[in-house]
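Supplementary Note 3. Input sequence used for the single-chain structure prediction.
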Amino acid sequence: MKNILFLLFVLFTTSHSFAEEQRYNVPLEDSPSCGAKNAEVTFIEFLDYQ
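The predicted structure, written as discrete structure tokens, is reproduced below.
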């Protein structure tokens, strides 16, 4: 039982995403937005109205 608890502890404390980090710089000068201009995270939504 201790081994299982230890294994679960290790899995939950060391879980990392193995996906490669990708960041894109998107110009936002004249784009409509809401929220703080100095926010740490910006979500951009692309829509296709077809």
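The radius of gyration is 20 Å. Helices lie at 2-13.
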